[in-house]
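Entry for the shared binder. Reason: the reviewer on the internal report wants the predicted structure included alongside the sequence.
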Amino acid sequence: MVQDRKICIDIPYAEVERRRALLAQAEQLKRPPRPPARATFTSRFWLDAMRVDYARYRADLEYMVDCQARARKWILENIYDDSLPREFACDRHSFYVAPLTFGCALAYDDYMPWIASHPVAVPADLERLRRLDVNHNPAADEEQQQLAEIERIASRYTFVYADGIETVGCARMAPTLFSTAPFSLATDLMGSEIYLRVKEDPPFVHELLDILVQKYIDRREFVIARYGGAREELHLVDDSCSILSPETYLEFQAPRIQALHERYPGRLGIHIDGQSNHLIPIYAEVLKITRLFGFGPMVDKRLLAERLGGKCSLLGNIDPVLLQSGSPEQICRNCREILEIFEPYGGFTLLDGNNIAPGTPLENLAIMRRTAEELTAVGRR
């Protein structure tokens, strides 16, 4: 049984608020006093850095919550960037809750699960998906039970900042919204076979995608009705689409994102960290996205700035491999190049592109914010 715990964090909460303000201004397409800079990482980064027992972390919710509480302190005290305090989360399946719900088996490697099976291949599989209740099935029921337990455990934690401000526990925890865009989720369900089927059996793929759109809506409506949350905002992961031609994307993926956006109008955010130069015109002119999060290092920076700079909040795109193994001089040079291209447009956050690898030196991560600070100190163009 977890006893009430106070965790002291050796930075003032005023620093957290300063970071929050910088990030908010960038999301509003403004030019904040300096460009915000932060590292994105899943738990595999800090699990490795803190030498957490991953098997126990997955199996024991009290241990999971305690590790996350200690990680909040460790990240804020040791990573010099503009990250906000990490929220508590049900982290047993990382971001693979949707594939698990639809029938994928997961394999659990060190610090990260992976998809081990692809359950959709024939028409009977589509019928099974059509009948699936995405809100009441073994995976969904397990997640909701675990979230309630994590919320109960987390309520015993108080975080005390250096200026005396205290924060307690966590907000009500809602089940995962399916954030993987329809075609990318379909690749989880079919594996690489889907890239052949778009040519050999397009009706099958279209039917699958239409089912996934409806299941996304079913899930979102359930979560909003029971737990609240923003209705008119979409943030979708588009990673598996980087190898689609523009024509194939326009046929299979774009209409499904448009259908979701019509149902949930407002901000439309896309994450894609592959080579997506050929999709940028579609994002800009067809989907009219308002946020591009974690775009990868292979993206043509000047093309992206010309098409979306000042029209869409942009977050990217330092090479995570460079951050892990590059020299300080190389990293600083890359940060300067990115900032010089994107910062004048406003709405820009310097970010890795995307997902910091375990073992990345903390000193290398700090270069991101220091370079942004130096840009401000010497004056903007």
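Summary line for the report: The longest helix spans residues 202-227.
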